[in-house]
Design brief:
CATH superfamily of the largest domain in chain B: Response regulator
Helix content of chain B: 25-40%
Largest sheet of chain A: 2 strands, antiparallel
Shape of chain B: globular
Number of strands of chain B: 17
Structural class of chain A: mainly alpha
Number of helices of chain B: 15
Largest interface: A-B, 55 and 53 residues
CATH architecture of the largest domain in chain B: 3-Layer(aba) Sandwich
CATH topology of the largest domain in chain B: Rossmann fold
Number of helices of chain A: 19
Structural class of chain B: alpha/beta
Strand order of the largest sheet of chain B: 7-6-8-11-12-16-17
Number of domains of chain B: 2
Oligomer: heterodimer
Radius of gyration of chain B: 24 Å
CATH class of the largest domain in chain B: Alpha Beta
CATH topology of one domain in chain A: ABC transporter involved in vitamin B12 uptake, BtuC
CATH class of one domain in chain A: Mainly Alpha
Strand content of chain B: 15-25%
């Protein structure tokens, strides 16, 4: 953990400012990559937030939760119910979602944190799968099962009716002070939440509380032997990351007022683990990067079909082109999971610290070359 | 921990300034306004259709066949290949010269049979690829979710394989259209055949896929069989994509029921039917009668998956490749030449939907959604494989003949799995649009 001592408050602030500019300028620099459309950028921000929150638990304490999708789902359902009962304003929906997801996380964390390692992972997985099945069957009156929960024109929406905005022509969209929360305004709404979440995460990482969490990760037994009860700290981290997930779930519904049970499926829980590891667990920016990479491949690679491939490889001679296209088509379209799996394997094998580690290595390489080689021996790399 | 909860004054000021700057930023970008008559108005020499089908999950087989049909439809619209049903459709203004002089291009996406993924994929097509029309879906839950998305966004949705009453019932939308038949029609068409085959004194046990389609099909089949005098012993909901149905089938044996009705589709139906047969249900005698299994919604792809087990089992289907009218023959011929096997009903309905949309644009003289809606409402046509068909204006549902089919006892080829028992005329399955409620609302051009 050499990183702790090296970082300065000024460096953090600089990094955060750079990050903020990058996020807010997304529509500009993502457009050439084919990803500069509102829906995908919203997903980047929302799942980035989800992964950043997950990283507070996994990256700092080392507790691997396989059930975070449950909190995402709770946040989504709470938000849609808030739309249905209170009105289409996103702020009460988000507040309620965070509180309820936090409370739910406290209950699950209270039980699960009695165990560590694989047992903890299995416990959280079991709880998440339970919530998923409940949402699918017993709780159908609340969740509307497979069809998904939607906002209807006949819902009470008390606040909307009080403000005289109860009767809506056309479809119901979440509205903040007259601005409809879809398209670009929706993205900026999510981006602001992402920046707030990111800032809180920066502060957490550098706080004594964050240090305590890292201590749990490095050796929990030793902490216990010195007379410190670590569980309240771990539970707090669990609840905080659950609240992040709840916020992300609520934002999913703010940009598109529909909540379905599949958001709570174990694959969704696994996805956030992938995002965090892919980007770099325990790093500040890694999870956000991982979320971006996964959502990008899910939306862009899955959309490639043979027609697009023929366009890309059109410059090759006919026979070669056919062969290249038929090989490449295995990895795009419905095969995008294959691409992702390969990428994940490569990163885990060669860059255990995720994409962030790759960045550090390139940086180190450039520095060494700049100094004429060998001068870097004085700065040992962190043993990952 | 204390430090984190009580940040310094300087820290709060800095943070506040950063958030303030962040909040001000969006106004720079959101000021761009779009100026067009309707969303995604095609400006170049191509027009983009969005094909949103399941490529993974319980309905992946259907999705793959739908995509083949769409690609064939695009070929025919652009004047490649033999033209397929463009030659038999009556009336039509399509000439195989694209649509309104523009060549048809398409984008594809994977719905994963999940509402979330389907909506994300449809949004990508609308926001990024500029699709003017979204079509597809092989699950009613997905179709309803995408239909309402298209209504909100302001593009046309041409539903693919969706059989729930809700799609054009309580969840109907002005921008959405469905060619496929629905659960109510299945019940109305199937009931008389069930009566003549199994009599009017039967006890039925339902296994139902637990989502909108399963619910409405269970309700419709229940209503029409109870009208025959049948008794419904129990109706059990099973999760979509369950895989193993043995825990649901064992109770059937001791329930006293003598008919099992499987409200399943796709791989679910293949699994539940296969397991029901393996449990020996069909060899049993209950209440002095042979135990029977009914699959209200059938497809050839499923029959192929279930193999031997489908022999003699009754159900309904929207269309079958062995039909001998001109439209069906032309479609089977060009599909077969392209891919080497006959099309499924999913392929048929999606192909027809793409052609119908193109024809409506051509007749309306515009791609503007409201114009297309007007052209499709109340449109009557023939030569598309189901006899004379009406796109009813009141609920955007097509009314046409429904096929009652039976698993073929002596198949002559690996595709000859279903035998047509009866072609039920459209009048017999037509209903009052008011019975399902719902509102079409206003059409939306997206600007």
């Amino acid at each position: 953990m050499t990183t702790i001592t090296r970082e300065t408050a000024r460096g953090d602030l600089l990094r955060f400012a750079l990050f903020a500019v990058l996020i807010l300028a997304m529509p500009l620099w993502l457009a050439p990559l084919g990803a500069g459309y509102p829906d995908l950028m919203q997903k980047f921000a929302i799942y980035g937030l989800f992964a950043v929150g997950f990283n507070i638990l996994f990256g700092l304490t080392g507790y691997l939760s396989f059930g975070h999708a449950a909190f995402l789902g709770v946040g989504s359902y709470t938000a849609v119910w808030s739309f249905k009962l209170l009105g289409m304003n996103p702020l009460p929906a988000i507040a309620l979602a965070i509180v309820l997801a936090g409370a739910f996380a406290w209950v699950i964390g209270f039980v699960s944190l009695r165990r560590t390692g694989i047992y903890f992972a299995i416990l959280t997985l079991a709880f998440a799968q339970m919530s998923y099945n409940l949402a699918y069957s017993v709780l159908t009156p609340i969740t509307n099962g497979e069809t998904g929960l939607r906002v209807l024109n006949s819902d009470p929406r008390v606040l909307d009716h009080m403000m005289g905005a109860g009767e809506v022509e056309g479809s119901l969209v979440s509205t903040l002070f007259g601005i409809e929360m879809n398209g670009l305004p929706g993205f900026y709404f999510c981006a602001v939440w992402l920046l707030i979440g990111m800032y809180v995460s920066f502060r957490l990482f550098r706080s004594p509380f964050g240090l305590m969490l890292m201590a749990i990760k490095s050796n929990q037994n030793r902490m216990n032997f010195t007379g410190i009860n670590t569980r309240p700290y771990a539970l707090t981290a669990f609840v905080i990351s659950g609240m992040y997930a709840g916020l992300a779930g609520a934002l999913l519904c703010v940009t598109d007022p529909l909540a379905g049970a599949e958001r709570m499926q174990w694959t969704a829980s696994g996805e956030v683990v992938l995002m965090t590891i892919l980007g770099g667990a325990g790093t500040l920016l890694g999870p956000m990067l991982g979320a971006g990479i996964i959502k990008y491949s899910e939306n862009i690679f899955s959309a490639f079909n043979e027609q697009t491939l023929h366009e890309i490889f059109g410059f090759l001679p006919d026979g070669v082109e056919g062969a290249v296209v038929s090989v490449a088509s295995l990895f795009v379209g419905e095969g995008w999971h294959l691409t992702l799996g390969l990428l994940f394997m490569l990163i885990v094998i060669f860059l255990p610290g995720g994409v962030i580690e790759g960045g550090h290595r390139i940086q180190a390489l450039l520095r060494r070359r700049g100094k004429g080689g060998g001068a870097d021996q004085a700065h040992p790399q962190a043993a990952e | 921990m204390v430090d984190f909860l009580n940040p310094s004054r300087r820290g709060v000021l800095k943070g506040g300034a950063a958030v303030g700057a962040g909040l001000a930023m969006p106004t720079i970008f959101s000021s761009q306004a779009w100026a067009a008559d309707y969303l995604n108005k095609p400006t170049g020499d191509t027009v983009t259709f969005g094909f949103n089908v399941p490529q993974t999950g319980a309905y992946a087989d259907e999705g793959a066949d739908e995509l083949r049909a769409y690609q064939l439809a695009v070929k025919h619209l652009n004047g490649e290949g033999d033209g397929g049903m463009l030659n038999t459709m009556n009336p039509t203004v399509l000439t195989g010269n694209g649509v309104l002089g523009k060549k048809v291009a398409f984008v594809t996406g994977d719905t994963q049979t999940k509402s979330d993924a389907a909506r994300a994929s449809a949004k990508r097509m609308i926001e990024k690829d500029g699709a003017i029309m979204i079509t597809g879906g092989s699950s009613s839950g997905v179709a309803i979710a995408v239909q309402s998305l298209c209504q909100e966004a302001g593009v046309i949705f041409m539903a693919g394989l969706t059989h729930s009453n809700d799609t054009t019932g309580k969840d109907k939308r002005r921008n959405g259209f469905r060619h496929f038949f629905n659960a109510y029609m299945s019940g109305a068409a199937l009931a008389p055949v069930l009566k003549s085959t199994y009599g009017s004194d039967r006890k039925a046990y339902h296994l139902t896929a637990d989502y909108t389609w399963g619910w409405t099909q269970e309700e419709s089949i229940k209503n029409s069989t109870e009208a025959l005098g049948w008794e419904t012993v129990e109706a059990v909901r099973t999760p979509l994509g369950a895989g193993d149905f043995s825990q649901y089938i064992t109770p059937v044996l001791n329930s006293g029921a003598d008919v099992l009705i499987l409200n399943h589709y796709g791989k679910d139906m293949v699994n539940s039917l296969t397991q029901a047969v393996q449990f020996g249900l069909r060899d049993k005698q209950v209440n002095g009668k042979d135990f029977a299994i009914v699959v209200p919604l059938y497809s050839r792809l499923m029959a192929q998956g279930a193999g031997e087990n489908v022999k003699g089992i009754l159900g309904t289907t929207n269309w079958h490749w062995s039909l001998q009218d001109e439209g069906s023959k032309a479609f089977v011929k060009s599909f077969g030449e392209e891919y080497g096997f006959p099309p499924s009903q999913a392929a048929h309905t999606t192909y027809v939907q793409a052609i119908l949309y193109a024809d409506a644009c051509e007749r309306a003289g515009t791609f503007m959604p409201c114009g297309v809606v007007e052209a499709l409402e109340g449109f009557e046509f023939d030569g598309m494989g189901n006899g004379p068909t009406l796109y009813r204006a009141a609920d955007h549902q097509c009314f046409k003949n429904v096929l009652v089919v039976k698993g073929n006892e002596n198949p002559t080829s690996q595709f000859d799995l279903l035998e047509i028992v009866q072609e039920v005329p459209a009048e017999q399955v037509t209903y009052d649009p008011a019975i399902f409620g719902g509102e079409l609302g206003e059409c939306n051009n997206g600007v």
